[in-house]
Amino acid sequence: MNNTIGDAIRRLTNIFIALLLIISAVAAYVQVSDRAFFNGPVLAESETYNANGHCPPYDAAVRGTIYDRNGVKLAWSVQDPNARCGYRRVYADPTLSPLIGYFSYKYGEAGVESTYNDILSGAQTGVTVQQVTSHLLHQPQYGQDIYLTIDDHLQQYINQVYNSSAIFGGVCQPDGSDPAGAIVVEDTQQGHQGEILAMVSRPYYDANKIDQPGYFQQLQADPGLPLLNRASQGLYDPGSTFKTVTLSAAIDQGVTSLSSTYSQQDALHFVANGEHIDWVDYLNGQWQNAQFPLTVQDAYAYSDNTVYARLATQLGADKWLQYVRQFGVMTPGVGMPQTKDLGFDAPFNQSSAFNALTNGQPTQFGPNLLAESGFGQGQLLISPLTMATVASTVAANGYLYTPHVGLKTVPHGVSQSNILPNAPTVYSQVMRPETASAVRQAMWAVSQYGTGSAGLPSHNGFHTYDSPAHMGGKTGTAQTDQANPETWWIGVAPDDAAGAGSGPAKYAIALLKEHSGEGACQVYVANDTMIYALQHNIGA
Predict the structure, then answer these.
(1) Do the Cβ atoms of 297 and 259 come closer than 8 Å?
(2) Domain range 154-535, its CATH number among 3.40.710.10, 3.30.70.260, 3.30.750.24, 3.40.50.300
(3) CATH 3.90.1310.10 given to domain 47-148
(4) Rounded distance between C-alpha atoms, residue 262 and residue 272, angstroms
(5) Less packed terminus of the chain by CB within 10 Å, N or C?
(6) Are 526 and 517 in contact, with CB atoms under 8 Å apart?
């Protein structure tokens, strides 16, 4: 009988021990992960929790640090007894605020702080033995760190030359102006394709001041829209830079070649469904050195709208739109194939080939819209990020790599050298390598004798055609309903068509300034940027 009582006591004791272990495990899970049990809502640093005016639990993870590709600290958390919830976020480079965004216990997250929130806050790691141990020993817990593809030295240099290297006056950027705009530099080197090395958006703001009284409301009311990342969220008429897409499609489909020619009449005048499209620059006295019949390469170099309206028409709407979609540009028409977005890992707006509605009705992509779009007008709304990927695709022999700013994720306390960077991802093969090579040749013609060179004064002792950057590209001057057009330049450097020794392209660039005159006036901003990147071997 005594043995029976003893067995019962042992069984009861085991039950109580098991229940105690279960309760302890649940408590540890809830406290360590700040998550209600069985997939409940995340409590630490969540938008819903913060929106109620509360702070995270006392033992929530300290938010991870954001670094540039070289280990330069860009954003980190520090204890501050005067700050809301006892911590404040510190930002090192205000020029990166439109990209990195902000983290605030009052206003939530924006930019990279938002898209990588689960990693930075530690919510994505789940519960580990180390976390449980740290919690039980009352040791600090940390979110993971993020290394960006950005090179902050290049970022700051671009911000310095944004206006200082531009040409002012006349048809160029108005004297003394500081126009809104964006510059994107993308790596095209083997193993690094798609890495965004710099992303300038102006005007920008100081994320360190987000929680200061009235500052956030001031930013929201600012007509200059400093909270908008113009590089990835701004949508603009691309102007003649989009001729690069038309040229790529036409050569790739065998519709044309760089040596194909058009008579003077055909190069100057075209009628699309009753709409007259003329080469206005030539008719107004420019490019009188042009030789007829005019080659497709020369039409690109001199930026002849008429020839590129013809090329788009020769391709036809279906084929032209097919190539546009391969660049991640949306075609929102009824019955149109769906377009996969570029997959950029920070907030962005997808570019579109035309409006979903025109005069309240579904847009019909007819002959007029096709011809206008072929030379970069029509209803195109394109971001600088998209145009940077157009240039980088040409540099990368026809392969479009998904653009990204996330280089690697590193757990707190782990050496970043032990973590491999994210591998490039192919979004699509847009064109054949020989097509891309031909387009690079046309881009070099722009710098050698076309709109990227001719008629410009020398700058720092050289023109673009004798610059050490060997940059080829395409200007864009997009007509809008404003007095001054949108100003564009896209380029690759070095352009292998520049001659022996230039080598394969390492970088692609897209530059956009709002209402700032001729695109040619901004070539030297891009050129100085490329010289700096090449001299400092950025991204290698």
Answers:
(1) yes
(2) 3.40.710.10
(3) yes
(4) 17
(5) N
(6) no
